[in-house]
């Protein structure tokens, strides 16, 4: 990701925060639709994300094109995106999609754990090769893939999670579904000013153990911690913790493997 795109994403995020409660699930759906629209129209995308064009003129363009057609909050985010300089014109699509996920994360009820639900969707996909193939197929009609998502998830997870997964399969842009789900989880956690940690253990951890681990990781990363927990009996004991690209592995299985390598 280029520095220009990082700065542009920061500006769009700040606009969402300024919208407060107005940036809700409906606004997220609009942002997803706008992202798909820009993805399908090279001409429109080029006009809105042209780095050589005057930012005020680009903002005026989107105001003329979309005022009255989308909500004020969605239009504000799009207008901010149009004013920015993106490293690549296509990055604005990623920016609007990210804005949609962040709008969902910031407006979801406290009773809804989008990160946990996305994790469970990812586990379901990983455990079913046919399902993963159906969702990642480049030949399948996007509407058909969306239909699969709605049939499988509609009564099992929140409307917020359904909306995110629906967007990811409707517009994959070369990404695998598992990769997209991980990205969405990380984005949700970041919006809540947390980092996502995947903890793998041989047996379920107690609440006290998770609290101690949360304290250690919070000090290390200076942020709140959102957990994914995975049970893998092959670890025998100990833990494996992944935070982004960092891996902390204290599992017995790994220590035994290290011993075998030293003996060899």
Automatic annotation (TrEMBL):
Keyword set includes Ion transport? yes
The UniProt entry lists membrane topology as:
Peripheral membrane protein
**Alphabetized PROSITE patterns for the sequence:** ATPASE_DELTA
Give the signal peptide range.
Answer: none
The source's superkingdom equals Bacteria
Give the chief site where it resides: membrane
Q: Where would you find this protein in the cell?
A: Cell membrane; Membrane
Q: Which Pfam families match?
A: OSCP (PF00213)
Does this UniProt record's set of keywords contain Membrane?
A: yes
InterPro entries from the entry? ATPase_OSCP/d_CS (IPR020781), ATPase_OSCP/dsu (IPR000711)
PANTHER family on file: ATP SYNTHASE DELTA CHAIN
Q: Which family does it belong to?
A: Belongs to the ATPase delta chain family.
**Job description of the protein:** This protein is part of the stalk that links CF(0) to CF(1). It either transmits conformational changes from CF(0) to CF(1) or is implicated in proton conduction. F(1)F(0) ATP synthase produces ATP from ADP in the presence of a proton or sodium gradient. F-type ATPases consist of two structural domains, F(1) containing the extramembraneous catalytic core and F(0) containing the membrane proton channel, linked together by a central stalk and a peripheral stalk. During catalysis, ATP synthesis in the catalytic domain of F(1) is coupled via a rotary mechanism of the central stalk subunits to proton translocation.
Q: What is this protein called?
A: ATP synthase subunit delta
Name the source organism: Gryllotalpicola kribbensis
């Amino acid at each position: 990701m280029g520095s220009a795109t990082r700065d542009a994403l920061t500006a769009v995020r700040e606009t969402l925060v300024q919208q407060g409660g107005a940036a809700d699930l409906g606004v997220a759906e609009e942002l997803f639709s706008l992202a798909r629209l820009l993805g399908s129209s090279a001409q429109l995308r080029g006009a809105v994300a042209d780095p050589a064009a005057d930012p005020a003129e680009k903002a005026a363009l989107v105001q003329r094109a979309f005022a009255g057609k989308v909500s004020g909050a969605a239009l504000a985010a799009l207008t901010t995106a149009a004013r920015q300089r993106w490293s690549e014109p296509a990055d604005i699509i990623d920016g609007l999609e990210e804005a949609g996920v962040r709008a969902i994360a910031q407006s979801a009820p406290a009773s809804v754990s989008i990160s946990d639900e996305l994790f469970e969707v990812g586990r379901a996909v990983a455990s079913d090769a046919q399902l993963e193939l159906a969702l990642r197929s480049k030949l399948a009609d996007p509407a058909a893939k969306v239909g699969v998502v709605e049939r499988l998830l509609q009564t099992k997870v929140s409307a917020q999670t359904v909306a995110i997964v629906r967007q990811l399969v409707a517009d994959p842009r070369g990404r695998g579904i598992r990769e997209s789900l991980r990205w969405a989880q990380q984005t949700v956690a970041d919006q809540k000013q947390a980092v996502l940690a995947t903890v793998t253990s041989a047996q379920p951890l107690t609440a006290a153990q998770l609290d101690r681990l949360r304290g250690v990781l919070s000090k290390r990363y200076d942020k709140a911690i959102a957990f994914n927990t995975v049970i893998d009996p092959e670890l025998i004991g100990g833990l494996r913790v992944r935070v982004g690209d960092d891996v902390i592995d204290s599992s017995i299985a790994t220590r035994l493997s290290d011993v075998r390598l030293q003996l060899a």
